[in-house]
Design a protein that fits this description.
Blueprint (H helix, E strand, L loop, with lengths): L1 H17 L16 H13 L5 H10 L1 H4 L12 H10 L2 H15 L7 E8 L14 E7 L4 E8 L5 H11 L6 E4 L6 H9 L3 E4 L7 H15 L9 E3 L4 E3 L1
Helix pairs in contact: 1-6, 2-3, 3-5, 7-8
Length: about 240
Amino acid sequence: MHGERDMDMDAPRGLLRAFEELDDPRIDRTKEHSLPDILGIAICGVICGADGWMQIEMFGQSKEKWFRSFLDLPSGIPSHDTFRRVFNMLDPGSFEKCFMAWIDDLAEASQGRLIAIDGKTIRRSLDVANGKAAVHMVSAWCNANKVVLGQLATEEKSNEITAIPKLLKLIDIGGAVVTIDAMGCQKEIAATIVDEDGDYVLQLKGNQGSLHDETVLLFDECLRDRRCFVYPFFEFPFLNHTLR
């Protein structure tokens, strides 16, 4: 039983280690709760579906016994106001760096991973009344680990081309195969993947001009010389599935 308990505690302790370098912006005399306690409860709460500071506080209270197995909690569970105030003071860039280091640690078996890069507009993020454009996110999804390794927000879909290289440098793609749709079929993106010791599969469309024409010619020659084979595929939209 002791061995099982140690194994169960590895994940939350790894979370705390990843945030050891994050600066606490508060004044020492105002610290009723430690930063690791606040971060640990908040992140676990969001992962479990908590939506807002009140729900994070309620989640912490409902799981207090478990949190005390790896957190200090000298003053109990922080209030929702404490969560809100502390997170508003944290440096977003530093927090993101620590969080992504933790995600990379969870997905440390990088060899042979398939990482899909894709951009999506967040539903209902358009705020016409306040003149705010819809939020477009570019994400890196690791299928083997079932986790988003990282994501960046862009002002619009056309900015994916500049956001993808930045995202690739934030995550560990060494030994992985990175797939991107036609938007990512760019020299800089391909070079970034190679520089980071990854491989890539990029979608190629007709708007790439000579590159598309030369690729078609290459495959025609390979088919003629029987150096490659074509596998037909059948799409079933209502099943969200493709057979090849």
